[in-house]
Structure formats: C-alpha cells, structure tokens
Amino acid sequence: MRFDIISTFPEFFAALDLSLVGKAQKAGVVDIRVHNLRDWAEGKHLAVDDTPTGGGAGMVMRPDVWGRALDTVLEEGAVLAIPTPSGKPLTQRDLEALVQVPQIVVACGRYEGIDARVAEHYGAEGIRVFEYSLGDYVLNGGEVAAVALVEGVSRLVDGMVGNPESLVEESHSVEGLLEYPVYTQPREWRGIETPAVLFSGDHARIRRWRRDRALARTADRRPDMINALVEGGKILERADVEVLTSRGVDVRTGRWDYSFSVAEESDLSEVAALAARTFPLACPPTATETEIREHIDTHLTENAFRELTRGGASITTVRSGPELVVVAYALCEPNAPDDIASLSPGACYVSKIYTDPEFHGSGVSGALMEFALADAVSRWGSTAVLLGTNQSNRRAIRFYRRHGFKKCGRRTFEVGKRIHRDFVYVRDLTVDPPR
Ligand code: SAM
Q: Is 86 a pocket residue for ligand 1 (Cβ < 6 Å)?
C-alpha cells in the first residue's frame, strides 16, 4: 500500500515514523512518501499561492503548481484525496474502501485551499478524487487530515494490527455502534469499581452487558447512528430494543419519543386514567365486569395513587408522542406485603407495571421495569425485589423471567368474592439481569 503526501510542511509527517505506522513502514507493509510542494513551484519566491480571483480574504493555492506535482506523483489506479472542510465527512467505511486501492495521494491545502480546477481536472481525467473532511471545524492546513487518513487506512492493511478481532469490535465497525466502555487493572481506582459483570467469566452476560452499554452510549452521543441502524433494520434483539427505548428511541418509528420520570402529584390523574384502561386487560378471564369496575373505583383512582405515594411508594412513568402522554407506569413500594415479604426479607415490591396495549412489543415495559428498579435501588437501597403475577398470565411470566426474576412462591388474593392465584417472583438487584 503506497501513500504519497504532498504538503508545504513535509517535516510535519515525522509523526508517521512513530508507533504502529512507523513499524509498518520499516516492515515494508506500507510505503509512505512525503513530498514538498515547493519542489514544483517556480519563480524567485517559489510561490504556491495567489490572490483569490473575484476578491476576498486570504490566498488560494495555484493549480499550475499542484498540476506539476500531481502529474509526477499520481500512478495508475490512484485515489487523489483532498482534505477540505467542505468535503464529505471521513468515515470508517471510506477507510475500508481506500485500503483496497494501490496508491493514495493526499494533497494538503493551506490558506483558503486549492484552486477548484485541480479536483475538477483530475476527476475529468478519470482519477478518483476524494474530497474529505475531518469534521465540522476548520484547521489551518490539510496535514492533520492527511495523517488521520494515512493512519486510519494503514491500520486496516493486513498484518498491521496484531489482533484483527479488535477491528471488528471497534466503534464505527460494520455493527454501526460506538464501542462499549473498556476497563483494566486495578479493579478499583479512586473509589470507582470496575463493573462486577466483567469478572463473572460468563461470556454471554458480558457480551450482553457490552452490547447494552454500546447501544446506550450510541443513543446518547450519536442519535444519527441509531437512526441509521433502525432504518437498516439492524436492531435485531429484543434486549436491544429495550435499551434503546430506555434512551428515548421508539425503534418502530425511529423517532426519539420516550421520556422516563418519577411521577409527581400533577401526573397522578393521568396515571389513574391509564391504570383504569389497562387493568381490565390483565385480569384473568374469570373476573366479572363488576368486580373489575369495583377494583378500579377503589384502588386505581387518583386519590388511591396519592395515598400510596404518601405512604412511601414510588410511581415511575413513560411518556410518549408530541403530547407526551403517559403510556406506561410502574408502582413500587419499599416493602413487600406481609403475605409474601418472608420470601425475600427486606426486598422492595413491584406492585404494578402496566403499559398501554398500543405499546406492547415496543420495549417500553422492559425499559420501564429497569428504570423503576434503578429508582428503587437509589431510593431505598433495595438489594432484591418481589412481585406477584397471575398464574395464567403467560406473557407477563415470560417478561419477568427475561428480566431476571425467578419464581419463589405463590399467593392467593381476592378480587370481589373470587380467589385469584399468583406466582411470586424475586430478583436479585445486586447483579445485572441476564436477559
Ligand atoms: N477556506 C476553506 C473553507 O472555508 O472551506 C478553509 C481552508 S483551511 C483554513 C486550509 C486547509 O486546511 C484546507 O484546504 C484543508 O486542506 C485543511 N482543512 C481545514 N479544516 C479541515 C477539515 N475540517 N477537514 C479536512 N481538512 C481541513
């Protein structure tokens, strides 16, 4: 792989003799040749620039000087790379394409840049011209951008990076995510612990943890990358959907539509309305309409929720859409009811978690569950959580299992005059759920 860099500051490229690129040069894996543009300048002052035609500030690099330089250096099959803030933002995909070509010639601009006819001429001659930008900011010259391109392409050349696996897992790899956070020794540094899951030796859990972190980080820092994944249908796993939902993304529409919060007094009427809408859907078929209505009128009113929060319960909600409507809520209590508390002494309790049916399968329930439990841990220091669910509610049971809950008992309770049977589930809150 050959690089030719043409610049008015050839000394700048001493940096390419260092580190891996330096080693690769010595090993003959890459051949980097640096040229001084002034070698092709003429006249007493070896000028490479002149005033901008049509007026304006600064100076522009002359096409005739660049023409002489490029005619000498360009070889068959070369790409002419021209760094410029008005170019296409350089991406990993570009580097992957560039590593396939035999020669890359980088033309480093200075001043206000290179006369536009240079790119036009070589393009018309059939040379692939790649005008690229390092980002939305302006540097003084193309040298930094040239080093970035040479280093970025070089590390993709076979034999450059010791462990080629590391190229697959990186930020901006074909996965389209930023990399997960990385850690090394010591295990605790300045009071900050390395996440325990990384010591578990459980490769599936570590993989899931890393993917969760990569998704969350990408959603927070690079919404554009998440949108590209969603559009490309690349969010495949259910757990992916929940992580993205927890960051606000509706993966069904690609819109950034969700907000999670702890409910305040003013939210309670909306919570009660949602509770009244969703409760009947989760009732066993044996429950009569009158029984259901009675339960709603007694336990799911705004006042009932107010009493619960005054008694120490915490309600968390998910809002969605332009009107920010409450579409899901969870109600957690610091202690489980007496009939099941002994199954996990000290555990907090998820008393209710309901999602508007329109949002079933959207990841909202899972994301809300994790949000509500994180709230319980920070609020009450809970290390375990209990909940009960009707024995016939298969969907809920599957959901709790996926979220790390294990069956630990049974209970019965009455709605009206009818006896209902629940399974009781527990989850250890000191470890991440397996998912
Ligand atoms: N007048 C130019 C404009 O507004 O687009 C900026 C010229 S800049 C001061 C001089 C040279 O620095 C450019 O020709 C280019 O080689 C390089 N340069 C500056 N910012 C860059 C960036 N973000 N990406 C790539 N090259 C850049």
A: yes
- Average the pLDDT over 317-321 and give the result: 95
* Strand 249-250 to 348-355 pairing: unpaired
Q: Which tokens in the block code for residue 12?
A: 């700048």
67 lines ligand 1 (CB under 6 A): no
Structure tokens at 37: 């543009």
CA of 85 to the centre of ligand 1 (A): 5
Q: Separation of 131 CA from ligand 1 center, angstroms? A: 11
- Is residue 435 scored above 60 in pLDDT? no
Q: Vertex 232, ends 228 and 235: CA angle to 5°?
A: 90
Task: Please give the number of the atom of ligand 1 that sits closest to the Cα of 113.
Answer: 14
CA distance between the termini of the chain: 45
| 378 CA distance to ligand 1 middle (Å) | 49
For ligand 1, say whether the CB of 110 is within 6 Å of any of its atoms: yes
- 274, containing H or E segment: helix 268-282
> What number does the ligand 1 atom closest to the CA of 58 have?
1
Could you give all domains of the chain from N- to C-terminal order, each with its CATH number?
2-169 (3.40.1280.10), 188-243 (no CATH), 259-428 (3.40.630.30)
pLDDT of residue 218: 94
- Is 133 or 165 the better-scoring residue by pLDDT? 133
DSSP code string of 58-92: S-EE-HHHHHHHHHHH--TT-EEEEEEEEEEEP-H
What is the C-alpha separation between 186 and 189, in angstroms, rounded? 6
Q: Is the CB of 57 under 6 A from ligand 1?
A: no
Nearest-atom number in ligand 1 for the CA of 136 is 23
pLDDT for 234: 77
Look at 386 and 321; give whichever has higher pLDDT. Answer: 386
pLDDT band at 28 (very low <50, low <70, confident <90, very high): very high
- pTM of structure: 0.83
What single letter denotes the amino acid at residue 208? R
- Ligand 1 atom index nearest CA of 107: 16
